[in-house]
Amino acid sequence: MDYNAVIHGLVDPLIEHPDSIMVRVLPGSTEKDVALLIVAEDDDTARLIGKHGAIANALREAVGIAGKADNSNIRIHLKFESFNESHDDNEGAF
Question: What is the structure's pLDDT at 1?
Answer without folding.
Answer: 74
